[in-house]
Write a structure and sequence with these properties.
The chain is an all-alpha fold. Helices cover 74% and strands 0% of the residues.
Length: 81
């Protein structure tokens, strides 16, 4: 396993230590690894969203498809508790 040096502001370090002290993470390193996993997930989700945007830009919905989508969304909103 590799090791890196990271510079944090006093506030960032305080928040990191609070997360460890409250038991959210066992160690600072565990907290940093969890943050990295969240970042990776966010970047993956962003990549998927970008792919969808590109696909819809390349082949936009027809007026009929857009109307059907609007109707389905309205029906789902009406059915929601």
């Amino acid at each position: 396993m590799s090791q890196i040096a990271v510079r944090l502001t006093d506030e960032e370090l305080r928040r990191l230590d609070t997360a460890v002290a409250t038991g959210a993470f066992r160690t600072r390193a565990d907290a940093v690894r969890a943050a990295l996993a969240l970042l990776e997930e966010k970047l993956r989700e962003q990549s998927i969203a970008d792919s969808y945007r590109a696909a819809y830009a390349a082949a936009p919905l027809s007026a009929d498809d857009a109307a059907a989508l609007d109707a389905a969304l309205a029906a789902a909103a009406d059915a929601a508790p």
